Amino acid sequence: MRRHTPATASGIAAARAVLATLFGDPGDRSFAVRYWDGSTDWEGSGEPGFTLVVRSPGGLRRMLLPPSELHVAEAYVRGDIELEGDVEQAAAVGGSLGARLGSAGTLARLARLARQVLALPRDPAPERVSERSAEIRRLGSRHSRERDRAAVRAHYDMGNDFYSLWLDRRMVYSCGYFPTGTEDIDAAQAAKLEHICRKLRLREGERLLDIGCGWGGLVRWAAANHGVEALGITLSERQAQLANERIRADGLERRCRVEVRDYREFPHGTVFDKVVSVGMFEHVGRALLRTYFREAARLTRPGGLFLNHGIVRAPDRGSGLARRVGRMLWRQGSFIDHFVFPDGELVPLDVAVHDAEAAGFETRDVESLREHYALTLRQWVQRLERARAQVEQLVGAQAYRVWRLYMAASAHAFASGRLSLAQVLLGRPDGHGRVTIPATRADLYAPAQARREVAA
Predict the structure, then answer these.
(1) Which residues pair with 308 in a beta bridge?
(2) What global pTM score does this model have?
(3) What is the pLDDT of residues 179-203, one digit of tens each?
(4) DSSP string for 405-452
(5) Which of 377, 208, 216 is CA-nearest to residue 304?
């Protein structure tokens, strides 16, 4: 039988009481909890979905004062807690805390337990958590060009070697496309690139602009397989360098290139036959969304097409006091803003479509790839976990934990419908109201040879 000192026993009792208030009694939970003394709470049958390991009373104290998305995430990133098993299930449980915190009964019970939590001992020197947003916030107004560059580089300049450990071989950092649901990540990303090119109805010799091109996977694919002249732009010098190295290795330097450039910096009169943006408009921000679409329209020739592929959030459902209180206390989205995508901002689909049409576009097609992104993220998490030792050697243990939690939590958000991925095909009508697009979608799904005959 395990023996406790009075202080240890009271600390474990306080921890159990608080966790029961936040997550329910052990018999009602789908996960186990293991405390710093080695004792475990698990009353389910079989194996738990995951195990929450609380490593010290001081770590629990920091995590719960007050309980919020950011504090819980920081506890994991710092190493105060460990998540053993399915981290997506852990993210789902964590996501339910916001609703619980909107309950007056839960808040009252937490208030009664506050003294016990405050009595938990502090750790002598807790590990400092390194966040990415503090320095960026000092660079002036949100979504200024200087601050946007810093925010993008903070994320993408983690290093090409880091991303190559868990992305596909083309290093496409956006939602894959799974026609059967059984594709591996390489096949899913190749299918996505082709799906986008087909939607744009690319023809040989056309000029294509990719806004936020990453490592150039799409411009290389479009140039090699559809014969276009493609330009990709990114704010990350590291991405541009590797993209152009790969373009040269493929012998495509006469057909495509990648530049470090802001989409707002093209000279007046610059136009492309087709424009695409994949996974970039999430960085634009609500206040600049109309500017973004106006610039895209300016760069698209009359009669041409623009495909916007990006994450959208579900509309707010309900506005009761409990829901507002829960959102305010939980501070949903604070983890990603501090550690992953500084200044990122998601809008509902209707807002994006409204602003695109206000800029002069006409909506021609909308497709949700919500479930596809959940599948993509799960494969990324699995690949990241398999490469853990190499990842930690490259970027450190904290960065590994940040990306593991961020991608698993995102997988849950897409699977549950809180987030979605929308491909919106927009046309810029010419002076006669015409857009160059077939009458049906049949060409999107036709075999390659038949598709070329239709295009001809």
Answers:
(1) 277, 424
(2) 0.90
(3) 999 999 999 999 999 999 999 999 9
(4) HHHHHHHHHHHHTSEEEEEEEEE---TTS-----SSSHHHHS-HHHHH
(5) 208
